[in-house]
## 1
Amino acid sequence: MTKAKNKSHFVGVRLTEEQKKALYTLQKTSDLSKTDILLRGLEILSEYYTLGLDQPPLNQELKKLEEEAIQHLHALKQIKRREDSVKHMIQELREVDEIIDDYDGEKSALIQILLKIQEKNHWLPKPALLWVSERLNIPMSQILHIATFYKSFSLEPKGENLVRVCLGTACHVRSGPKILEAAEQFLGIKAGETTPDMKFTLESVNCLGCCALGPVMMINNEYHGKLLPSQVPDILENYRVGEIAMTPEQQKLTPLAQRPTNPQQR
Amino acid sequence: MTTFTSGKDLEQYQKNLQKQRDTKKTCISICSGTGCHAYASEKVVSAFEDQLKKQNLTAMVDMKRTGCHGFCEKGPIVVIHPHNYCYVKVKPEDVSDIITSTIKQGKPVERLLYEDPETGKKIMLETDIPFYKNQTRLIFGNNRKIDPKSIDDYIALDGYKALTKTLTKMTPQQVLDEVKKANLRGRGGGGFPTGRKWETTKNATTEPKYVIVNCDEGDPGAYMDRSLMEGNPHSVIEGLIIGAYAIGAHEGFIYVRQEYPLAVENTENAIQQAEEYGLLGKNILGSGFDFTITVHRGAGAFVSGESSALMSAIEGKVGEPRPKYIHTAVSGVWNKPTCLNNVETWANVPFIINNGAQWFAGMGTPNSTGTKIFSLVGNVNNTGLVEVPMGITLREIIYNIGGGIPKGKHLKAVQTGGPSGGCIPEKYLDMPVDFDELYNIGSMMGSGGMIVMDEDTCMVDIARYFVNFLSSESCGKCIPCREGLRQMSRILNDISAGKALEEDIELLEELSEVVQMSALCALGQSAPNPVLSTLKYFHDEYEAHLHGECPAKVCKALIDYTIDPLKCKGCGLCIKSCPVEAITGGKKGAHTIDTDVCIKCGNCLDTCKFKAVQKTTGKHRENPKKLVTMEKR
């Protein structure tokens, strides 16, 4: 035991601590003799030299190969991701199909169909709109006319939390605009914009229909009434931290929001 | 599930229901309208459920989620029957007290009762609270008694009785005559006689005919249609079926704003229940009359509340109005005769049929009969929904029911009729409220929004607010509305920024008249009302803005925040609240505000405990350029 531990040289070669340990275990576990190990070592060494692995060009070649392998791996991952997103899209289109079938493919139900898609995804992805256009035989221009006319529709992905500040008359005379300002200042965005981290979308709306509580701010499905501007940051901070996160149903939908497809830009 | 095949079936069922209902059994009814919901009434409900279960009282006590009670200011509201104790602002923590005192011993919980702010007395019953006592609750009355999700609740309170009477004892012509005699006028804004509208559609020769409930309540500051549709959907459906019978329509639509998810849910649920009971569908109550209803959700466009726009939205198109050379009553949805009425109008119909036209016409004024629901909001003590007979004065509504203006401030104006209405100054407070009187002083009934404004409201800012609102909601189809409103908005923005000239106001007036005369639909035609009425009654405020002064100290460009060094105690609260670090000053010394840095958010004013922060106005006259507004965009 002590012999093996103290051994710092092996047939004249100086060993590092790790090599020492390896050698020790090798001797313990295998029935190879000292000479056998030495011969095997020499064999490997000679192979190393015959292959020319010590030469710089080959070394580079190896590195290159390694890099290529990594690249291929990335490409594979990307293909997998695309495959997933295509699968997702197909799934999504299936859902669109179901919605359309619910309305028996009636052309007059276009707005109701778009509302359902909007509800599911929180926005109107282009593939879905194209599919609606195809199925109902309504030109895309007409669908975009409707999608841009009505306020409920969005052609851009929205943030995880939808913050709506009411600027209806009742809220206006009870300083609703100050609430909006406070929210804008806290989030660092203007009304109608989404924070870069996709956490919040801020909107100003004309009436949430609970005028007795003015000024009102609605976050997702929660109403916050009789607000003071100074309360706004604390309330919003709670949502950023995620204490009051979205419902599981809403959470399921968030991956969609990350996909950058803006029908207007394409 | 019972399907009624004759009127007698339904009557029998009704009698059985009324017999079965134990009026002495304790029932906790909790308001689940949107207002109370926002105050977490759902948590109160689950607290009750938990406690009742724990104490093994579930069998002895009924629980009910009701529609909106209307007194949203004091929500969540809980009423305990049979004592009818009314508790306001109930929190989940209060539940155990209510159970020990009221439910077990029948005693009221004093601290939860409504306290009359004038006398300081506690009021036990909901009906004795001044807010309710001074109202006439006809259409809205059942809201607090029924669970909107239960058709039996509605039937037990004589629901669908008018429908039975209509289908078994009356001809369509008789129904129409009754509505005409009652002189019912459209509650959605215009005040067009409902009977005449029905008659036009009835007499139109094209088939099929359609009837529509307009619940696209987009007016900011109004939410009574929402509360009716959420709280008592069956009353609207009953009215619609009766109307369809009179007109000869077999298909109806209920157009509900998508922003009102609960209204959509309750309406769809009510339709399904009515179908199961055979009150909708084929051969209703064995009369041979067929009728179906479809719910159509609006996708959020203010202009879609206009009748022709709403109809094209139902067709699945963009909700833009069209010229009405031919009325929609003759050529509406898919160019077929279509009768569209507001939620409240339809809800009035069963009452007229049950009680007769004469009874109905006995309420209100000769030309405006019946009652009207107003949403009393803004700077008033008791905000909420109030139903009053037509012809009552504004003073009665605001002071007797609304309890006056908070913080002892003065009333400046009342805004009625939503963005299409006008601002009524204090001097008209004793004027009776009906369709014609309001129109005569430059406002209108509208759908019933009544926004009270105190002395801290700037009338120029209000006019600017409405014009900006309408300009963004204009569909852009006709030029007067699209361009006219845009220019008006620019002028008003200039006025409130202190950059306008005398002639700008003249131009504003001229533009208003042009838009009023030439716009395509009611949105554009009535858009200048807020401007014209404020110009008429509050001209001095416009003048003051021309001289760089905002009397109400609202318009940001014309005000400054300063700190009174005598009052400032140097506590440093304002320094912490300032988002732009505009306030400086050491401990215990008076602070100062750097007006160049200040963004006028008002945080310091709100946080100061010593009233040292003040708003000042004046000295803000920039050199105005001539007709800034008409320069190129």
## 2
Amino acid sequence: MAEQAAHGKAAREQQVDTRIAQRGGDQAARLAEVQQRLAANNPTAAERIASFRNAPTTFAVNGSRGLIDGCPPGLWMKNNGCMPPGQAAKLLGTPLAAAAAAYPLSALPQPLTYLYPDTPDYYYRYGDGYLYQVDRGTNLIASLLPLIGGGYLPGQYLPQPYMASYVPDYYGLNSFYPASYGADYGYGYENLCNRYANGVIYQVDCDDGYVENVIPLYAGGYGVGQMLPSAYSYYNVPMQYRSLYYDTPDYGYWYAPGAIYQYDQRTSLITSVAALMAPGFTVGQQLPVGYDVYNVPYDYRATYYDTPNAWYRYNNGYIYQVDPVTQIVTAIVASLLT
Amino acid sequence: MNSRALAWGLAAVVLAASACNKQGSNAGQAPQAQTRDAQKAAGTKTIAAGLAQNGRFMAAAKGAGLDQTLAGPGPYTVFVPDDAAFDAAPAGTFDVTPQNRGQLTGVLTNLILPGTVLVADIDKLVDKNKGKGVLATVGGGTLTATKDGGKTVLTDSAGHKATITQADEQFTNGVVHHIDGLLMPAKAAAGLAVGQKVGK
């Protein structure tokens, strides 16, 4: 009898295991399908999403939300100290020496000084993700610039008014950062929403606004002089630009819609724009408004000139062929950078 | 002893060289692309090197971190307003303060097109589209091109107009057209107010 029960239990467990394995397989197949579809639509978006998919595992290091060693996860991962904005704001008007005693501060690295130049009235000190503007006369901290984004950091909650502020459509950004992700995006996307405030995209929990990631937008007011969001410390430069912009001990390169940025490896501050990327188009897509002007570089004009049967347009390192009748982008015919 | 002195000397040279590499955007020096391979791909006569280093456009580009970009392979088509046009801009438009960097970037990227677009290409588009051609900028906005008395005129979304006064200045990484007015990006692209609902 006991043997039968044990056998039944084992069979049930096996059944459950099979179901779990099947579910896992289904999910994997679904993910692969989504990935494939995305890749067909937009290789860059697919690449980014594939990389982002790993982010939740990084955040799961501590097993739960909240602080790690007293730090919001985003700052903790930086491994260079941490300070919530509210606490930093209390330093306004205090002597620099007091702030430096509590948190290690240093001058900006030389390549970044042009972004925050010293003046006869002020100079800058950097530390813990903030830039302190110091009055030369009094040595008091006159203002504070959060370098990671618009003031809210991973591990904090986005205030309610911002939860109704969606990613703008002007750059096709709202398709890159949708308001929420559909069910078929799978693990890690179930309850993830993108919201926008003051030039920064916040990836938050749709229900409570818990900030999981901060993505400063370039033309929206951030970028150069800002700190690279911690979840973006991986190399994601599009393939055609990789032979030009590769990581070195001093500098790294990071792609976001609109540009490839160069950043300082030590401070993670964005030092300059390596390449401007157009919103552009991909194969299979209709040529967007504003791209029907011939723009092929000189060296390629003798080969790729418009005919009644085919147009040629340059975009982000490639020359594409376009059907003049349907205005559909039909193929990549040349890669200029590789 | 001699070998030690030589080693120190070599170290100093290496340090100096690496410092130069980092300071590609120093005042008075033509900016260079960020890596040696990018410099090679961009060619020797780049837009960044060809524009007046002490002009208002390059000063603004440096403030937005775009000076080294224009030394990169591109190619880009850049509409460069005359210095006089900069003076006519609303006060503070080109301030190179950290707080204004976003607006400054928006203004400049609205003056840059992807690829090499010669004036003949713009004119051809205008003729084909019954007198009006739309050009997409790398800033995500558009400019409208028309013809007026044989000259090519650009209009921004707010209706500001600028005429191309000097066309087709060719560089190894693109082309520059000089214009006599300033074109501004659409308000939406310059940044949205808190809580404003846009997109989906």
